[in-house]
């Protein structure tokens, strides 16, 4: 699948409020064509570079906003988990634990989506710059990508750490005994699955896109992202998207 179609599909499968923050690949491609036309406008290259800078600024603003929100949400979840662990058993305490379980799974999924956001937009930039250099005979890709590698949206160390911390929280709120009990209770499992359906589907789509974008191929080059380790349960993930209902509270693997 060509990258433009893959990106369009990924945007459609992303969270609705995130869609306008992805790379405007179609418009950048149109401007590359304008620069490389037989009679390009003198301002065509400047317009391309202006849009390119604006797109990078857009990625950074969105990524930093989400990153800050995730740090706050993780702290709040950790505090709630601690309070729930110290609370006396009661129906209210059990209801709070159930809410925390759903929120932790959603939180984990959203962070995986943000890692995918970084990967997809970086890949799009590298591809459009490669197209620009090929069409114009220029060497724009090398200096631009060197700068992109230092941009906030590409610096995912903090988010990756938050994902690992969230997985530790999952272990705390999904003890083996509780998981077994939930597996025996079909009605409860379906209720949780329904609540998580949207974020689960989006996260699965993100994981599969990351695997595809970062898989080895004959076109891999210096600017390609390193391949992901194979998803150990990728077949199960694909099946889960099409089978109703998906498993309750899936512990989705990260890269």
Oligomer: single chain
Distance between the termini: 22 Å
Runs with pLDDT <50, length 5+? 186-192, 216-220, 227-255
Strand fraction: under 5%
Shape verdict: elongated
Give the rounded overall mean pLDDT: 78
Protein name: SPX domain-containing protein
GO biological process, one term: cellular response to cold
Pfam families: SPX
Structural features, described:
The chain has 255 residues and is mainly alpha-helical. The chain is 71% helix and 0% strand. It contains 9 helices and no strands. It has helices at 3-13, 25-35, 44-86, 91-136, 141-148, 157-173, 176-184, 186-213, 234-242. Helix 8 packs across helix 9 (234-242). It is elongated. The protein starts with a helix and ends in a 13-residue tail after the last helix. The relative contact order is 0.13.
Quick overview:
The chain is 71% helix and 0% strand. It is mainly α and 255 residues long.
List keywords for this structure.
single chain, 255 residues, mainly alpha, 9 helices, SPX_prot, SPX_dom, SPX domain-containing protein
Mind sketching the topology for me?
Elements: H1 3-13, H2 25-35, H3 44-86, H4 91-136, H5 141-148, H6 157-173, H7 176-184, H8 186-213, H9 234-242
